[in-house]
Amino acid sequence: SFPSRLFPLREHGMNWRAKPLTWKEIQAFKKSEEVMQRFICAYQLMLRFYGITLVNEETGELKRAENWAERFQNLNRFSHNNLRITRILKCLGEMGYEHYQVHLVKFFLTETLVKETLPNVKKSALDYFLFTIRNKRKRRELVHYAWQHFKPRSSFVWGPHDKLLKYR
């Protein structure tokens, strides 16, 4: 399928024909400026499909696209998008774009928990997107952010409440 070719991983996905990447292949990709630029273009293409704009290529900052309302309806209606987003997040980590991962997960946490525009993405954002983050400190920050905005807070199961209360 389209995303498995654009966002290859070192693991088998839903497309059994997609061959997992090797560590050597990933290193070769990272050394090619052309491959990495195409990767960013593919990322921007998928973001646009989901109603999101990459504001800053350097930092990975995101915002809603102009057509966000229409695209978010699609995201809410079709749960297969959540698998694709998880794949994209994992691939961002493999390709050395951990900062892009963080921005994308925070974007979805904000839209699901704060703005409540993507109720059908909330479970995937908490169960899967959050745990694709490779950087432990950034992942903890995002778990804390999710906990701060989760209602009711007593039902939050993605981190220990005693530690989240003390988190700084």
UniProtKB/TrEMBL annotation:
Family: Belongs to the opioid growth factor receptor family.
GO cellular component: membrane
Protein name, UniProt field: OGFR factor
InterPro entries, per the entry: OGF_rcpt, OGFr
PANTHER family found in the cross-reference section: OPIOID GROWTH FACTOR RECEPTOR (PTHR14015:SF1), OPIOID GROWTH FACTOR RECEPTOR OGFR ZETA-TYPE OPIOID RECEPTOR (PTHR14015)
Domain Opioid growth factor receptor (OGFr) conserved: 6-164
Pfam families per the UniProt record, alphabetical: OGFr_N
Record-level Gene Ontology MF annotations: opioid growth factor receptor activity
Gene: Ogfr
